[in-house]
Specification:
The protein has 550 residues and is of the alpha+beta class. The protein contains 13 helices and 20 strands. A seven-stranded antiparallel beta sheet has the order 2-1-5-4-3-6-7, with helices on both faces. A five-stranded antiparallel beta sheet has the order 14-15-20-17-18, with helices on one face.
């Protein structure tokens, strides 16, 4: 491999970072859906001709970053590199080849310089509706919507009418989804122009030398960080709510010199409910958890994960076989990082966090508009409390591991006949400790529609709360209500005019014993309305008594 001046490499790396962020922003600003425009439920990356990812926008969803390379590698098996032409775009949302459920559409476009393929621009974006009748009670993936096989949606710059027609005829809001898809087409053009400009200005014919150096440096950095962890085997297991009975996720982490193995053997078998996490999704969140804990500052790319091996037994909830239902795969996948951190807490406690109020909570509202009777399907994200960190409290409404953004209430109320009554922090929901978990949030929606709105929820942590760690207390459990009466956490519920649905997300777990919590922080929590005096006297008795004596 040829050497490159490290200063020049650094400059090109910075330029690539700025470029990819600008390209992604062009997609976000021209997108049609709130889930992309407001929530940033998307990713945009550059990958080499072998499917190795070397850079991505900072707003990318962690799971999409982790699955995009695998998707492109599967695409290249079906459509070899020499079968791509300028102006092509390939699409697929196959759950087992992509992000784990049909609602995420992945596309890639080739980038040529002087008729030579030099890279791919790749993106994934969530679409709220993908047809079908997805529900918490789905028995297989066929119920969950339209599966788009690997195919060219654009060929030499011309849209494939058959693929467009399939989407047009199978979606409830095709204009929104196709608008997002075409916004990505434009972003690919922007990416191509900007990348070629960069190469010309830096007098490079391709990216091969740059990519090789970047991947090598990331690999070296990760291996060095792994070496700092004592060799050994570290185990954790946790129980999650599941459906009819709790399910188990077991992790064994083995560190051998500069390599690390994560083995999920002993995890529960797959079930016929849509919470199974396909291997791609499991792999993505396992790698993300390791990157955050071990080597967060080095560039995130294919090189980072060469020392990492993930074992997920086939037929389990972390590697199901077709046609298992997978619509709510985050209900398992978002548990992967805490399962890993539970094991790593025994050896690198300062690098990990307590459990957050995740898996991510969201709500689907499906109905018909009041003014024109057109169908709508809208989604609202709600984050629970973040787990406490080793040196600070966990923030509220910012659950790890997902990083989707909040949507403004006014924007949401504009899209559907719903009125938001309340969006507030919930008192006494933080896991206690020297550092407390982030508080839960409470939010209420009132139906203002004369027509029934079908509300679908898929929530976890209503039975098993987010765990505290290293002496910290558990966060609060989640609560789902309609008209102040509890409803199942995984259900579809018809909302009539005037019905009020209220949700309280889980609070984050605490870290270290509460006996060590700073008295000033306790007082601040009370004054902020996050902690009641009653609970403070019960949990932080000595600190509170010292304050009274003063």
């Amino acid at each position: 491999m040829n050497k490159i001046d490290p200063i020049k490499l650094g400059i090109i790396w910075k330029r690539l970072n700025g470029m990819i962020d600008e390209v992604a922003e062009s997609f976000i600003r021209s997108s049609f859906s709130a889930v992309v425009r407001e929530n940033y439920d998307m990713a945009f990356s550059l990958l080499d001709i072998h499917g190795r990812q070397f850079i991505q926008t900072k707003k990318s969803i962690p799971s999409f970053i982790g699955t995009l390379p695998h998707t492109l590698q599967e695409i290249l098996k079906k459509i070899p590199a020499d079968h791509f032409s300028e102006g092509d775009v390939v699409i697929s949302n196959d759950s087992w080849l992509g992000t784990g459920h049909l609602n995420d559409i992945t596309m890639v476009a080739p980038i040529f310089k002087n008729k030579k393929l030099i890279a791919f621009a790749g993106s994934t974006a969530h679409t709220v509706d993908i047809g079908g009748a997805p529900s918490p009670n789905a028995q297989d993936s066929y119920e969950e919507g339209l599966c788009i096989p690997i195919c060219k949606i654009v060929e030499k710059g011309i849209e494939n009418k058959v693929v467009i027609d399939f989407l047009q005829q199978n979606l409830r809001e095709p204009g929104e989804t196709l608008g997002d898809i075409r916004a990505q087409f434009s972003a690919y053009d922007v990416a191509t122009k900007k990348l070629l400009t960069l190469l010309n200005e830096e007098k490079l014919n391709d990216l091969d030398q740059i990519i090789s150096n970047i991947l090598k440096k990331s690999e070296q950095s990760m291996r060095k960080k792994i070496k700092d962890i004592p060799d050994g085997k570290y185990v954790d297991e946790m129980f999650v709510d599941g459906f009819d009975k709790p399910l188990k996720i077991k992790s064994l982490i083995e560190v051998k010199k500069d390599n690390i193995i994560i083995d999920f053997s002993g995890t529960s078998k797959q079930i016929n409910r849509p919470i199974n996490s396909v291997f791609n999704y499991t792999y993505a969140y396992a790698c993300y958890a390791l990157k955050c804990a071990i080597d967060p500052n080095a560039p995130n790319n294919d090189g980072s994960f060469r020392p990492v091996k993930i074992i997920a037994p086939i037929g389990t909830i972390v590697n199901p076989t077709r046609p298992a239902p997978v619509w709510g795969r985050h209900l398992t996948g978002h548990y992967i990082p805490p399962a890993i951190y539970g094991a790593l807490s025994k050896v690198i406690p300062k690098n990990i966090i307590a459990e957050s109020g995740s898996p991510l909570w969201n709500i689907y509202f499906k109905g018909r508009q009041e003014n024109n009777d057109k169908p709508f399907v809208k989604m609202f994200f709600m984050n629970g409390g973040h787990g406490a960190r080793s040196g600070s409290d966990g923030p509220g409404c910012l659950s790890f591991p997902s990083n989707v953004s909040n949507q403004s209430i006014e924007q949401f109320e504009n899209q559907a006949p719903l009125l938001v009554h309340e969006k507030s922090f919930a008192k006494d929901t933080q896991g206690v400790g020297k550092y407390v978990g982030g508080p839960a949030q409470k939010i209420s929606f009132e139906s203002k529609s004369s027509k029934t709105i079908m509300m679908t929820i898929r929530h976890e942590r209503v039975i098993h709360p987010p765990r505290g760690i290293l002496g910290g207390g558990d966060g609060s459990k989640g609560i789902d209500l309609v008209n102040n009466k509890k409803i199942p956490a995984k259900t579809s519920y018809p909302l009539k005019f005037g019905d009020i649905a209220t949700f309280q997300t889980p609070g984050g777990g605490g870290m270290y014993t509460p006996k060590k919590r700073d008295r000033k922080k306790i007082i601040n929590d009370i004054e902020s309305g996050l902690l009641s005096s009653k609970k403070a006297k019960l949990i932080y008795k000595k600190q509170v008594e010292r304050n009274n004596d003063a």
